[in-house]
Amino acid sequence: LAVTYHDLRRFTEAKVLQEEVLKLSKEILGERHRYTTMASSNLALTYHDLGRLNEAEVLQEEVLKLRKVIMGEWHPHTIGASNNLANTSHDLGRLNKAAVLKEEVLKLRKDVLGERHPDTIKALDNLAITYRDLGRLNEAEVLQVGALELIKEILGEKHPTTLKISNNLKITSDRLQKDSNAVVHQGNDSPAPRTSSPLSGIPLSTRTSAFAYAGPPADSNTVSNRPGTTGVLRKRPAVSYEETDEDGDPEGAAHIQKKKKTL
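Below the sequence we write its predicted structure tokens.
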């Protein structure tokens, strides 16, 4: 039911159910059970959709720590947990932390999946977005050019992932061109536009796009709880999140439901 509420973008109702599932999972299966970490990860994504980013980050840090112990850092679900935490950190403006996490995700995906796997290519683009927002535009463009070439070969030019990466590359290239023009203006003694952050001067609608993860699309407009942005509607950055449905094994869920009826 919580999944259905989430699909309907009824995030508050989904949150209530997911909090109950997580509580029961901890009581019945224990904190270190893989289904418990899945429940915690899914609740964190709902917190993210509600704009409760700090709470989402706390849960995701806990999930990552547990998965490293239970599954090992090379396991796909551990890598996915690191990816989710990186994206939440990015959304909170903790770009250096996000960059470190995304660099690790990219390295692990290359080692585990290979350079030509779509998830590895998405990790390239994901890292490039953080580099771009840090002002590391040349590095971002190099990553996105490589990602676009690979994804075209593997998925084709019209695949949604290809189109998303192409759009992200265009945003980066436009930023580079804008900065280049600013340097020319400065050389002509014309003041360049003042910026207070790597994102200044870029309309929100052009530097963000659909929120994406390996599950149904979430609400693209949420209220940020980031300091100084209370009540500000924002769109999801074009990064990849993962809804950790694990191996699809319903054993944990069924066990919890059975126990719940007898409580």
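DSSP finds eleven helices and four strands in the chain.
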